[in-house]
Design brief:
globular, mainly alpha, 2% strand, 346 residues, ABC transporter involved in vitamin B12 uptake, BtuC
Length: 346
């Protein structure tokens, strides 16, 4: 291996690691606020990429109808609940938010020709179709069992993952899709070149991480999520609705996953189940951060990306095995550290 190959591998590893880092941050956020190990995270990556590919092909994406169905179901359930508690005035707001807005998205998709839209508008439509699925799925699948054990929440997460995976196969088929690059070509620096799409990935990932940091530090809703993550009971006692925190957390996770899918679709062929591996590698990074540390999860995910890149060069047949084997020493070290801390306390 020469220096040129090593630099290319590091570039590829950091690019992939940026995607894994975003997924790891979303997993840590969801677990901290809701105690859900968010197994379906990868499905938002696949849905985002395949929805954008459908729009660029001039088709109305099937995820739009999933949004309409789930929104109508949530509107019905919340309207019934509001009627039973005597809060009929909120029914109009519930119907507008959960049923009318998805219907307007469907009307907009049919009113325009998606394939002729500018790429930024196609990306915005993709976000509008996929991101709302996050809070809707939380309301239907996780909110009714929000106070259950972590094990039960994990079982529900696995069930949601399997359902979304099956729907992905039904919606998009088994064939992979790609989208157009944001900017074609590569930037050449001396004898080294880097694709403009990779620069887009790194730039958007960095901007999103900075935006999340500002959101949690400066905004009211961000502080509410931090309070819920630190102490759910205390947050409820001071008036922070945990239902709102859960929906907002899933919306942020869905936004991150959808953006990841949009970013990787020009550089790799995305299948209905591609997001599962992306989410798993983000999960490895989150485990390195112990599912509580955002910087640890991001650094761990970057390490996963670089290790995967070099493994694909030296032992491509075993690259997945090498990446996922990273969990074993990390879990062993954390187990020994936890045991030592428990002995010191006793």
């Amino acid at each position: 291996m020469d220096t040129q190959i090593a630099l290319l591998l590091v570039q590829d590893g950091i690019t992939n690691g940026a995607i894994y880092a975003l997924n790891a941050l979303a997993l840590v956020l969801v677990f901290a606020v809701t105690r859900v190990v968010f197994i379906p995270m990868g499905e938002y990556v696949a849905y985002g990429a395949l929805t954008l590919a459908s729009l660029q092909a001039g088709n109305v994406p099937p995820t739009l109808w999933l949004l309409v169905v789930l929104g109508s179901l949530v509107a019905l359930l919340d309207s019934i609940a509001a009627w039973r508690r005597g809060d009929a005035r909120s029914i109009a707001r519930i119907l507008a938010l959960n049923a009318l807005m998805p219907a307007l998205c469907a009307g907009a998709a049919y009113a325009v020709e998606p394939g002729k839209l500018a790429q930024p508008l196609q990306v915005l439509l993709t976000l509008a179709f996929v991101v709302p699925l996050g809070p809707l799925i939380y309301r239907l699948a996780f909110e009714p069992v929000a106070e259950a054990s972590v094990l039960l929440l994990l079982i529900v997460a696995v069930a949601v993952h399997l359902v979304m995976l099956g729907l992905g196969l039904f919606f998009f088929g088994a064939e992979g899709m790609r989208t157009r690059a944001f900017t074609a070509g590569a930037l050449k620096i001396g004898g080294f070149s880097i694709q403009f799409q990779a620069l887009w990935i790194l730039g958007i990932a960095l901007a999103l991480i900075i935006g999340l940091a500002l959101f949690f530090e400066r905004s009211f809703y961000g502080k509410a999520l931090r309070a819920t993550a630190m102490n759910r009971v205390g947050a409820r006692l001071v008036g922070i609705p945990t239902e709102m925190a859960g929906k907002l957390t899933f919306a942020v996770a869905a936004l991150i996953g959808t953006l990841c899918g949009v970013l990787i679709s020009p550089i790799t062929t995305v299948y209905y189940d591609t997001g599962f591996l992306v989410g798993l590698k983000g999960f490895v990074g989150a485990i390195i951060g112990a599912l509580v540390s955002y910087p640890g999860a991001a650094l761990g995910a970057l390490l996963v990306g670089v290790l995967e890149s070099f493994s694909s060069f030296f032992a491509s047949a075993f690259k997945e095995v090498i990446v996922f084997t990273m969990i074993i020493p990390v879990l062993l070290w954390r187990s020994l550290r936890t045991r030592a801390a428990a002995e010191d306390e006793s």
